[in-house]
UniProtKB/TrEMBL annotation:
Record-linked Pfam families: Tim44
InterPro entries in UniProt: NTF2-like_dom_sf (IPR032710), Tim44-like_dom (IPR007379)
Span of domain Tim44-like: 168-312
UniProt keyword annotation of Transmembrane present: yes
Biased composition (Polar residues): 36-47
Transmembrane segments: 97-116, 128-150
Keywords: Membrane, Signal, Transmembrane, Transmembrane helix
Record protein name field: TIM44-like domain-containing protein
SUPFAM superfamilies: NTF2-like
Coiled-coil region(s): none
Region of interest (Disordered), residue spans: 26-70
Signal sequence annotation: 1-22
Length: 314
């Protein structure tokens, strides 16, 4: 009977704290990646699957969504010269007036010819049929001339480019306004150090230290998570963090800001305790392996790298 009495308490604890994902970020995808926020980071050797879209971000979500993955932006319609033929409306749509005029003229002539009252008096005269063919040729020539004139005028207005896109336009899927950059070994060392220092500041509940290593947006998320734990009388402690491997996903520049998204795999012990120090979630003896994509940002030439987003792999 005693075990049965403990079941409601255990169930309440499970519902309250869930699984052991109380580490920084709480196992969610949060933050901003500049213009790449709602684009999937390129896959890496340690993140062969797509990263999970953002659950929370200060960057406005695009609409409509695409591919069933919430938050991943819909690709624009393929542009001429970039993987798909240009959309060309049908002739009546492109030239409604000319098609209506010519169709009505020829239709009336043919109807008159078949009814015995053709364009030149029906089929009663020996030259009626040849006269009809002659008029058809004249009308066809006039229509071809007018269409050619309209086509040349439109081409001149577009700068003489029949494809409709100038050379050097961004390829499909690239985010506008960003330029790829090359990182140095010092950059990768900074990323690894930030991973360890942020985990340590989180466990110490040191918001001042977290604020110096993360964007205001990420600092706000961390503060909300720690406050929620504190309101429950709980505390999350991450210890024995061991960096295992990192792999660059992408690095780019927007204006005077440089971004880098790095896939990072690390091990740690992740436990949540109550106010008395009793473990209520996780394990203090068994290490867990985590793979996440961390995005860092810095102002070019004026600062250190700081954390701007955490995304869950797969």
């Amino acid at each position: 009977m005693r075990n049965f009495r403990l079941l409601p308490l255990a169930f309440a604890v499970f519902c309250l704290f869930g699984t052991a994902d109380a580490r920084p970020g709480g196992g969610s995808s949060i933050g901003s990646r500049g213009s790449h926020t709602w684009s999937a980071p390129p896959r890496t050797s340690i993140t062969p699957g797509w990263a999970r879209p953002m659950d929370q971000s200060a960057t406005p979500r695009p609409s409509p969504n695409y591919g069933g993955a919430p938050g991943y932006a819909a690709p624009a319609r393929p542009m001429p010269g970039y993987g798909a033929p240009a959309y060309r409306p049908s002739y009546p749509v492109r030239h409604p007036f000319l098609s209506g005029f010519a169709g009505g003229f020829l239709g009336a002539g043919l109807f008159g010819l078949l009814s015995g009252h053709g364009m030149m008096g029906g089929m009663t005269g020996g030259t009626s049929f040849f006269g009809f063919l002659f008029q058809v040729l004249i009308i066809g020539g006039l229509i071809a001339f007018v269409l050619r004139m309209f086509g040349n005028r439109r081409q001149s207005q577009m700068g003489g480019s029949s494809a409709g896109m100038p050379t050097g336009a961004p390829a499909f899927g690239n985010s506008g306004g960003s330029t790829p950059v090359t990182l140095t070994n010092d950059d990768y060392t900074s990323f690894q150090r930030l991973l360890l220092d942020i985990q340590a500041a989180w466990s110490a509940q040191n918001m001042r230290a977290l604020a110096s290593m993360a964007t205001p947006e990420m600092t706000g998320y961390f503060n909300a998570q720690l406050s929620e734990l504190a309101s429950r009388g709980a505390r999350n402690i991450v210890s024995n963090v061991r960096f295992q491997r990192g792999d660059l996903s992408e690095a780019w520049r927007e204006g005077n800001m440089t971004y880098a998204t790095v896939a990072m795999r690390y091990t740690m012990t992740d436990v949540t305790t109550d106010s008395m120090g009793n473990v209520i979630d996780g394990s203090s003896t068994e290490a867990v392996t985590v793979t996440e994509l961390w995005t860092f940002v810095r102002a070019d030439g004026r600062g250190n790298w700081i954390l701007s987003a955490i995304q869950q792999a797969g």
